[in-house]
Design brief:
By secondary structure, the chain is an alpha/beta fold. The chain has one domain (38-188, 213-224, 295-477): TIM Barrel (Alpha-Beta Barrel). It is 29% helix and 22% strand. The chain has a 7-stranded mixed sheet, covered by helices on one side. The chain has a 6-stranded mixed sheet with strand order 7-10-15-16-17-18. Helix 4 packs across helix 6 and helix 4 (208-255) packs parallel to helix 7. The longest helix is centred in the middle third of the chain and has 48 residues, at 208-255. The N and C termini lie close together (7 Å). 45% of the residues are buried.
């Protein structure tokens, strides 16, 4: 594996790399306290998109960035790494790296299904190493992409040495759904004029009525979550009011206890005199409100409706996109993210106004592509960004091996009009912010995980190449390996 392979120039501009539940998110394990200390020096340290420190260094200790400065002294025993440029590791926001094949093709997930439970961390280590060599240090992965509801995605660290879910999974950052995707019918045979047979792709587009229903289902699920959360809030309010009434009644009874006791004694005496049995009057307590039954699936939908989790919906055609935007307009807290968006330019103004990110998959269209990709255009990312739409760049979530090509896909987008600075942001801080991971990754700042790339030149400049990669503070890629 050649970690220093240059990004070939594209269109004379760019270069690419090759070969290289509430609170249920798993916490990434920290390196041992005796982990090596690194000082990474460079002529340029890109702390975040658009911010560069000249002739600076980064101190890495215990897997995290401890200091970033131009006058940084080298601690005793620290290993010094030098290069032209240091920046944050790349993030693939739309991947299936490490997802077991059966989980990837599963059509039965619901909103509580965890992709983290379907990760295969024991095979294809060479693919993860190649991803690291390409500069990709973390990814949002999901299974069940053909299902209407794909379940909870996992944000994972791309490191083949991490072989437990607790170590590899950083968070469960969003819920994923899809609407209007073609149906996989398996291979079909077509008889040619000469009598021979040709095998065609099994994907069959769904009809327009099913596509409308698919969007309505997405909106309906969000509404289900909203109603579930409203029931929870109403229950808490009623419970507080009930407890308040009980407390007030208890105080009242306590205050009148002596008088009530004397009155009771008199009543007992009267009953005895008349030869009757004395019976205490029962205090009728207000009925305690009934707590709504817990539902794991609706709980996640409620988190989406309230904006606690982003909702990623893979949708491509203009009709579905327009219906989805119309159907979700009333959910003020919803954090919608579009994956794919092949025809998203038709509603770019509304996407920009609502600041809805679009994860673009800038790959070449093959001859047997699904119907929803017919309008695929490598200029989509650049055109959307020019309209003010937040753009991310992903590898499509179909093949795990595609994550190692993420810088190449980004370079294709840059070569077709996407500003290089926006492409860099899409692969780093933009992706981290969208999925609530900016406190850990996406930039070179104190306290964040040490996911760092050392390059020969600024990202997407001709001649740039990855020389070193640190992932979670571990030196994973060097020019020697």
């Amino acid at each position: 594996m050649n970690s220093s392979a240059s990004w070939p120039a594209l269109a004379g501009l760019v270069c690419a790399l090759s070969l290289p539940a509430v609170g249920r998110a798993a916490a990434a394990t920290s390196p041992p306290q005796d982990a090596p200390v690194y000082v990474v020096r460079a002529a340029k340290v890109v702390t975040r998109p658009g911010h560069v420190l000249e002739n600076a260094a980064v101190l890495v200790r215990n897997g995290r960035i401890e200091r970033v400065a131009q006058d940084l002294a080298v601690p005793e025993g620290a290993q010094v790494i030098e290069g032209a440029v240091v920046c944050a590791g790349f993030i693939d926001p739309w991947s299936c790296l490490g997802v077991d094949a059966s989980v990837l093709e599963d059509r039965s997930p619901d909103a509580a299904t965890r992709t983290a439970d379907g990760l295969d961390l024991f095979t294809a280590d060479h693919v993860r190493e190649e991803c690291l060599a390409a500069g990709v240090t973390s990814a949002r992965v999901q299974g069940g992409y053909r299902a209407g509801t794909c379940g909870l995605a996992a944000f994972v660290r791309v490191d083949p040495t991490l072989d437990t879910t607790e170590g590899a999974v950083i968070d469960e950052p969003c819920l994923a759904m899809s609407a209007g995707l073609s149906i996989d019918m398996g291979p079909s045979f077509r008889r040619m004029p000469d009598g021979s047979f040709q095998i065609d792709s099994g994907d069959r587009p769904i009809d327009v009525f099913d596509r409308v229903s698919a969007v309505e289902r997405v909106v309906s699920q969000i509404e289900t979550g909203r109603q579930y959360r409203e029931a929870q809030v109403e229950y808490r309010y009623e419970l507080e009011e009930w407890q308040k009434a009980i407390d007030e009644k208890a105080k009242e009874l306590e205050k009148d206890f002596k008088k009530a006791k004397k009155d009771r004694e008199k009543e007992i005496e009267k009953a005895k005199e008349k030869g009757k049995e004395f019976k205490d009057e029962r205090y009728k307590e207000d009925k305690k409100p009934r707590e709504p039954k817990y539902d794991a699936e609706r709980e996640q939908l409620a988190r989406v409706a309230e904006g606690e989790l982003p909702l990623v919906v893979e949708v491509h055609r203009a009709a579905e996109l327009r219906n989805l935007l119309k159907g979700t307009a009333s959910f003020q807290r919803l954090r919608l993210v579009i994956a794919g968006g092949t025809e998203a330019l038709t509603c770019a103004d509304e996407l920009a106004e609502r600041q809805i990110p679009v994860i673009v998959w800038p790959s070449l269209a093959g001859p047997n592509g699904s119907d929803e990709f017919d309008g695929r255009d490598l200029a989509l990312a650049g055109n959307l960004a020019a309209k003010g739409v937040p753009v991310l760049l992903g590898s499509g979530g179909r093949q795990g091996t595609d994550t190692r090509d993420l810088p190449l896909l980004a370079a294709l987008a840059v070569g077709h009009g996407l500003d290089a600075q926006k492409a860099f942001e899409a692969l780093t801080l933009g992706a981290a912010r969208t999925f609530d991971q900016a406190h850990r990754v996406g930039s070179v700042e104190v306290g964040k995980d040490a996911d760092l790339l050392v390059l020969d030149a600024m990202p997407f400049e001709p001649g740039s190449a990855v020389r070193y990669v640190l992932t979670g503070g571990r030196l994973a890629i060097t020019p020697e390996n």
